Amino acid sequence: MRYSKLFMMLILGSALLLSGCVDTEDLSAQTASVENGDIVTLDYTVMSEDGTVVETSNEESAENNNIEQTAEPLVFEVESGQIIEGIDKGVVGMSEGEQKELTLPPEQAFGPYREELVQEIPIQEYQNATNTTEVPQPGEQLMSQMGVITVKDVNDTHIVLDANSPFANDTMIFEVTVISIEKGETSTNDVEVPSEDSEAFTVDEGM
């Protein structure tokens, strides 16, 4: 009789583990690597292409670059569209404690500049929507459901609002460190032992 190839591989793998030939710490590191569907917590620093730090969750980096307020670490589900593409894909395969520098072109960072995201609205409409009598000033940044909106211009009757990221069209550099990995349901690192009814346990009879 001869066993299926997969069954033999399982037997050999078990034998290596029992004999101590396989470093279990290495296996543990492999199972801790980031995969699609994992919940990842990242420490990060964002820099413009010339190296200027614009935001960071790292206290030491904030102090060294005279940034008054430290951001919270990023927490997101990998490949779920919750974060910009370059980070979403860039963390796959990283392990806890690992650091990486990601240089992201605009299409993988904050996107190209889109003219359709620039809108002119009447001041009265803005005041009604925000329940205020104040008029924002050019350069002021407002929070909305779309994120940060920049006041591009103000005249006697209208406000010009720009919903593009302040870093649209820019290549950005992200220094990221994986703080923790919570394995998701779609992760594939965990090895499932086949049942007796599975193909891996079939026995071929022959001479």
From TrEMBL:
Coiled coil regions, renumbered to chain: none
InterPro entries: PPIase_dom_sf, PPIase_FKBP_dom
Molecular function via GO: peptidyl-prolyl cis-trans isomerase activity
This protein's record includes keyword Isomerase: yes
One GO term describing the cellular component: cytoplasm
Catalytic activity: [protein]-peptidylproline (omega=180) = [protein]-peptidylproline (omega=0)
GO biological process: protein refolding
EC assignment: 5.2.1.8
Annotated signal sequence range: none
Subcellular location: Cytoplasm
Gene3D superfamilies in the record: 3.10.50.40
Superkingdom: Archaea
SUPFAM superfamilies listed in its UniProt record: FKBP-like
Region Disordered: start-end pairs: 186-207
Domain (PPIase FKBP-type) ranges: 37-122
Keyword field: Chaperone, Cytoplasm, Isomerase, Rotamase
Family note: Belongs to the FKBP-type PPIase family.
Name of the protein described by the UniProt record: Peptidyl-prolyl cis-trans isomerase
Organism (species): Methanolobus halotolerans
Taxonomic lineage of the native organism: Archaea, Methanobacteriati, Methanobacteriota, Stenosarchaea group, Methanomicrobia
